Amino acid sequence: MTLILSKLIPAHQPMIEMKPHFQPILRTGLLLLAGAGAVPSAFSAPNPPPPNIVFIITDDLGHGDLGCYGATKIATPNMDRLASQGVRFTRGYAPSATCTPTRYSILTGQYAWRQPPRQTGILNGDAPLAFDADHFTLPDMLKKAGYTTGLVGKWHLGLGDGKTPVNFNGEIKPGPLEVGFDSAFFIPATVDRVPCVFIDGHHVSKLDPADPIKVSYNGPIGSEPAGRDHPELLKMRADEQHSDVVLNGISRIGYMTGGKSALWTDEDIADTLTKRAVGFIETNRDKPFFLYLGTHDPHVPRAPHPRFRGKSGCGIRGDAVVEIDWTVGEVMAALDRLKIADNTLIILTSDNGPVLFDGYFDKSPDEQNGHQPAGGLRGWKYLVYEGACRVPLIARWPEKIKPRVSDQMFNLVDLFSTLATIAGQPSPGKAAPDSIDLSRVLLGKTEENIRDFTVLHGISGTLALRQGDWKYVPANAKGVANDMGSGAKATDSRFVGSRIPQPLLFNLAADPAEQTNVIKQFPEKAAELEKRLATIKAHDTK
Ligand code: NG6
Ligand code: CA
């Protein structure tokens, strides 16, 4: 029925201008008319089906990590090819500088910082689901449009209702299957956090009931050694937060005992996820599908498969980037093999900016060989500088997107409304309150900057505003807040940049690396942005 409607209402004047509750009525009416033969035949002509959607969200991949974004030291031929066949955004933004809040924003179309504290921190592996199970999510919306939806890879949005502790030996819910995914094969939190097992639907994959799992973030359990006591067992040393239980020669955040048959092998994770992703595509080749593929690379602990070791020339982090490129290549090859590439929209991005040292002494800071993961932007993951939140963003859909590079702004929170239009669904309106429909931008139908601002959200709780070429960062005298989940401290070198003693104003056109605070020269501009930020904070974007 959406197909019929889209014939009547051009895509660029959308259904958004109609009150959402009229749309189903109009649709139903049209359908009835069509059924009665009262609609001219042009309206009942078959339309191309909506595109399959493959959303690849990498973990801590930087704006400068890809050849197509200027990397010269690391070869990323598959991601570069994807970019050359689609649109590459130079102003793509993650809604937050860490994983959980960014993913929350993508799935709900709402900035995570509107919902503290549950969604703004970094969740541990036993944390409850970050939103209510009946929350209308992006995959829910796509299901309404007839899509089969699948999650493969990193989840990091919590499990269970929080009333009772998650039982990893029983049925684990609510989780992805309760919030819109038809199938889910996933890493519960991060690879540096327990439990180090995959969950398949509602159950831990490959679990032997005779060897039940127990998880604790409150101190040791079981007889498994801790990294801080047994450095001789480690493939790489770690800081205090990452020195709990040792699994597969890597110490983690948290403790876990049992579940031996279910433990993943870090070096095989990319192979496992890629195989699952390709399997999902193959199974659903004949119907519209939405695949949410969350890679664990290049997040710590970095342990790419041995066949990628040494391949980047830029240390183990670079090798993990090469591993991602392989995964992307495998997905593209599967679509080609199945002859569905032309009507598949692939979106490739990252949940936040890059980081070199993030708890494990894996030599990444020393082995960059001149590579700049943030591509010369200031700062790293966790902060509110551009390097923290500006991320690679590429979209390829051969049937509808002409290859180009776009400087139009795009925030990942916009995917909800954008994909709704592409899938022929009504605007989610207030159900996705911060999500702007950028389908015309994605499809190259306008040069306009429909989104003219973006909010940056740092681990400190600081919110900054980019508007056009200007960027305003309010002072945050304390720096990192206590919402880190694992006891990180403001003195940790990673978070030192989160302390901002004086407000800052940058002109990114003249000073893309945010080196010169021009607030004294342009106090009115700073006041204007400060005021706008306050308005955005107080009201939904729509
Ligand atoms: C932090 C961890 C960091 C990483 C991050 C999550 C410390 C000091 N740091 O708490 O290593 O796991 O959480 O990263 O414990 S994210 O990309 O999933 O947000
Ligand atoms: Ca991340």
Walk me through what this model shows.
- It is built from 12 helices and 18 strands.
- The protein is of the alpha/beta class and 542 residues long.
- The protein has 3 domains: 2-32, no CATH class; 58-200 and 266-446, Alkaline Phosphatase, subunit A (3-Layer(aba) Sandwich); 455-538, 2-Layer Sandwich (Arylsulfatase, C-terminal domain), CATH 3.30.1120.
- The strands form 4 sheets. It has a 10-stranded mixed β-sheet, sandwiched between helices. The protein has a 4-stranded antiparallel β-sheet with strand order 15-16-17-18, with helices on one face. The chain has a two-stranded antiparallel sheet with strand order 7-10.
- β15 and β16 form a beta hairpin.
- The radius of gyration is 23 Å and the shape is globular.
- The chain starts with a helix and ends with a helix.
- Residues 59-60, 99, 299, 351-352 line the site of calcium ion.
- The site of 2-acetamido-2-deoxy-6-O-sulfo-beta-D-galactopyranose has 19 residues, from loops.
Provide the descriptors you would attach to this structure in a database record.
single chain, alpha/beta, 18 strands, disordered N terminus, binds 2-acetamido-2-deoxy-6-O-sulfo-beta-D-galactopyranose, binds calcium ion
Number of strands: 18
Largest sheet: 10 strands, mixed
Shape by Cα distribution: globular
Oligomeric state as shown = single chain
